[in-house]
Write a structure and sequence with these properties.
Disulfide bonds join 33-48. Residues 1-20 form the signal peptide. Residues 19-65 form the P-type domain. The structure is a single chain. The chain is an alpha+beta fold. The protein has four domains: 2-125, no CATH class; 143-192; 200-310, no CATH class; 319-391, no CATH class. It contains twelve helices and 20 strands. The structure holds 2-acetamido-2-deoxy-beta-D-glucopyranose (3 copies).
Length: 392
């Protein structure tokens, strides 16, 4: 019924020469403001552009922005609560894979309108939900960055977001969690987004075998392997459940950490590594781009005469479709595509959603929304900074 009314309205509009409205925004880029009633007066009151066309599936009232940041900003500044939401930009466009529901919506940092949605307004929208007074980022924009900034430790975490929500629990170990740059809560076995605590941060705290955080270790099952990896074998440290005997002592010039530091300046990209190029390949397992980048090393697949996995600047980069070392999906479960029968701006909404979750939109790739970290969900602190600046 609503569609029909809309169609009638547009026939009426068409007869009034709708092309006279002034917009450069392409029809597929029109992000629907979803005002109700969906008319010119209401539309212009909330600062959206009114420009109906004859096709009913193209938004008549849309944001005067196409860039992701301003789309989210406009949406967040005009929607405060369920009862006061002037612009309702869909935060859950992926209806192919998930039926929007309150839990799924809120886990995205968005507002569940539920039964307050009028007609076919989206049920899940971006809104201004600042988690902490005075905090400059508004929610809905970068919930994961927010979580990192306001979750300092397990006991002091204002916004708990699971760091590895799609991993089976047996794979979420303390080691894995810390190397993702997340916070490990041993009492609850939770791995949370938060202030970083990866290997780089631990190494300077490790002064000797007796004065070294338990987590400052590299994986090595024997003294020989530890030496080979330039670690320091500390037999006083526990060997199970994880073998933590191979420590990274900060003033040992031959330990892994020193290698990392050295290589960070001598090997800044695959094309720019000065001798000696130090092999970072594992003797314990088959090295892949993921295992290599995960431990902070550089994956250089093109030159067969030098180690493919080597110490260097951890150069994992994925900032655009054309500039992505490894195409790893941001979300393994969400299908970021649109069928031809769906409204054209759904692709734009998926891009905005990908961006809001710090994904990298790469529509030419299979997954379309790629991860800024070598793992799926967790942005490393170093990536957060890069991504954030990139977006500014
Ligand atoms: C949309 O933005 C453009 C460029 O900033 C501006 O010239 C135009 O007046 C705006 N249109 C409306 C309807 O606000
Ligand atoms: C969100 O609300 C806070 C306080 O309610 C306000 O200071 C801030 O400017 C708002 N942010 C946006 C983007 O509207
Ligand atoms: C491999 O690396 C060596 C030393 O850096 C360089 O001389 C050589 O040209 C490289 N080969 C290729 C195919 O890039």
């Amino acid at each position: 019924m609503f569609r029909l009314l809309l169609a009638l309205a547009c026939i009426f509009c068409a007869s009034r020469k709708v092309n006279s409205c002034n917009t450069d925004i392409l029809s597929e880029d029109r992000i629907d403001c979803n005002v109700r009633p969906n008319d010119q007066e209401k539309c212009e009151t909330v600062g959206c552009v009114w420009c109906p066309v004859s096709q009913a599936n193209i938004a008549a009232c849309f944001l005067n922005y196409t860039d992701n940041f301003n789309v989210i900003l406009a949406a967040a500044s005009n929607c405060n609560s369920r009862g006061d939401c002037q612009i309702a930009v869909n935060c859950h466009p992926d209806i192919i894979t998930y039926q929007p529901n309150q839990a799924s919506c809120e886990s995205r940092g968005c507002l569940w309108l539920g039964t307050d949605a009028i007609d076919d307004q989206p049920r899940c929208v971006y809104y201004n939900n600042s988690i902490i007074e005075g905090y400059t980022l508004f929610s809905g924009a970068f919930p994961l960055i927010e979580a990192s900034a306001i979750c300092a430790s397990c006991d002091n975490c204002f916004h708990k977001i699971n760091c590895l929500p799609n991993e089976p629990s047996y794979r979420i170990t303390e080691n894995r969690c810390l190397r993702e740059g997340c916070i490990w809560c041993s009492e609850t076995n939770e791995c949370l987004f938060g202030a970083t605590s990866g290997l780089d941060g631990l190494a300077p705290l490790c002064k000797s075998c007796t004065d070294c955080p338990l987590q400052a270790y590299i994986k090595a099952s024997s003294q020989a392997i530890c030496r080979k990896k330039r670690g320091t074998w500390c037999s006083n440290r526990p060997s199970s459940p994880d073998d933590k005997r191979c420590a990274i002592i900060s003033d040992n010039t031959f330990d892994e950490c020193s290698f990392q530091k050295l290589a960070a300046s001598t090997c800044t990209s695959c094309d720019n590594c000065q001798s000696p190029i130090i092999d970072c390949s594992s003797t314990d397992y088959y090295e892949t781009p993921y295992t290599c980048v995960e431990k902070g090393c550089m994956w250089c697949p093109n030159n067969k005469t030098e180690p493919t996995c080597r110490y260097g600047t951890n150069n994992y980069r994925c900032v655009s479709a054309d500039f992505c070392d490894i195409q790893f999906p941001r979300f393994q479960n969400i299908v970021f595509s649109r069928t031809s029968s769906q409204r054209p701006h759904l692709s734009r909404l998926m891009e905005v959603f990908c961006y809001s979750q710090m994904g990298v939109w790469a529509p030419s790739t299979y997954d379309r929304c790629l991860s800024p970290s070598p793992y799926n969900e967790a942005p490393l602190a170093r990536d957060l900074t890069k991504i954030y600046h990139y977006y500014q």
